[in-house]
Amino acid sequence: MVHVQHLLQTLESLPAELQQEVVDFADFLAQRRATGTLSSSGVSKDKLAEQRRQGVGELQGKIWMSDDFNESLEDFKDY
Length: 79
Known about the structure:
The chain has three helices and no strands. The chain is an all-alpha fold. The model has no long low-confidence stretch (mean pLDDT 84).
């Protein structure tokens, strides 16, 4: 309840228009939590996690690096 008391004290110290902004933001957060979305775009947590996993390992076996990758190039041997 310490957080609630602090929030109320802070809210009371704000002008009326800023108090309304705080109320609007609290309503937004409550709605977002109720719908399970992470952002105002409406992307759910599960959908976002699925999007992040897509493409992982997609290029496995398609990319290779030569054994002498770190060796100096012939063009720069004189330097």
